[in-house]
Design a protein that fits this description.
Radius of gyration: 25 Å
Oligomer: single chain
Number of strands: 0
Order of helices and strands: HHHHHHHHHHHH
Helix content: over 70%
Largest sheet: none
Length: 360
Amino acid sequence: MTSKLWFQAGIGTILALIIIRLFIEVQAIFDPLFIIAQTIFVPLLLGGVLFYLTRPILYFLERKKFPKWSAILIIILLIILVFWLLYRMIGPIVTDQVNALVENGPEIIENTEGYIQYLLDQRDRLPTSVEEQLNGVTEQFGARAAGIGTWVLSFLTSFISGLFTLVLVPFFLIYLLIDHRKFVPFISGFFSGARNRWIRKTMHDIDQTLQAYIQGQLFVSFLVGIMLLIGYLIIDLDYALLLALIGMATNVIPFLGPYIAVVPAVIIALVQEPIMAVYVLIVMLVAQQIESNFITPNVMGNALDVHPLTVITLILAAGNIAGLWGIILAIPVYAVIKAIAKNIYARRQEIGHTVVKDVE
């Protein structure tokens, strides 16, 4: 019985739960480690994203016989050049649109409150159950609005802290570019024979999964931002570039990104001209259909092969557990776990076939 997969999985689950329980009981001992992990999490994540974006350039330069130090220096200079060009090209436009949005903020808020009040005035025409739910939402909104000052202060504090943290990003990127080839040999060096080969293959599959997701998702988000910008310019929407950048940024959130991006665009459209909200929805729908049916399948292919229902479930669960970061990281983490599980299954199948052959 001990050789059965279900028995081993059950014992492993029980041991994992015991370890988690013990970890919770002595959590205070690990508080310094949590603080360190929280400090380096964002710069390490951003450094990892830049690493996967720039590693092909490193390999290209190395094939051209560039020394590693000069190749890395060229990559750093290219990153600085790209950010500088972006700043020169869109920085002034975005700044002007942000300033205009701030100046028109009171009017936008007033108009938005007018639309909300109009909807609230229609409560008497709604069924009692719907009216009760609407009253509950209104009370929650009011309670959160009352604490907006605290939220803004917390956001500004986090933003300033984040700026200092971002200084670490180039250091993580440089060390990843220098030493990334040493990681797999270091991990696999603890094993030998078939296990060593299995570790190497599993790490390679994880690496390819992360590369496909990061490069593909960012490229898709860029194309979505371009499509939104073109659409917003066609319908002459105010703050078109700023709203397109918001759509580009939120598109990194699977499934929920487009719905988040359409909210500020619809609010701006309603203030500008009510019919513009319909045009915004049409632009978003067209861009989303092109992205989901043509761009994503051709850019990312079957690299992740995650069912849409699985995506929704993962996002909702991860959002409740870890908030925004959980939503952003749910799919790549799931893809990595899936790659590990597939390699474990393949390894067990290989062992099973070997045992059968030995018996024969």
